[in-house]
Amino acid sequence: MARILIVDDERISVLLAIRLLERLGHTVVDAVSTGKDAIERTAASNPDVILMDVGLKGDMDGIEAAKQINRLFSIPIIFVTAYTDQGTAKRMNETRFSGLISKPFQEEDLLRAVGEVLR
Fold this sequence. Notes:
This protein has a single domain (3-118), classed as Rossmann fold, CATH 3.40.50. Helix 2 (35-45) packs parallel to helix 3. The protein has a five-stranded parallel sheet with strand order 2-1-3-4-5, sandwiched between helices. Helices cover 45% and strands 21% of the residues. The protein has helices at 11-23, 35-45, 62-72, 86-92, 107-118; strands at 3-7, 27-32, 49-53, 77-81, 99-102.
């Protein structure tokens, strides 16, 4: 099963994702709420997949954090976001993201996206 890092500043989303992922046998290595912490925890824990919200606490959003993670590591990133405007989509396309889930996410969407990345 996969080791997953969750990067999200909404506690309810984090708790739901942890519950679903662990029920399937995945390990959530950590859950952080800032882009800076996402980069640091990626380096420290070497996850197989990162679930990344676009809107984060601090001065770095999830897209910028994903760009930096892309430069440093080869780890699939699945964006989990409520932002679906063209500007955000264009910025996400500047990263090498592996999947996209709209918030609020449905259980089957999360499980499908993680499963596809792991295949």
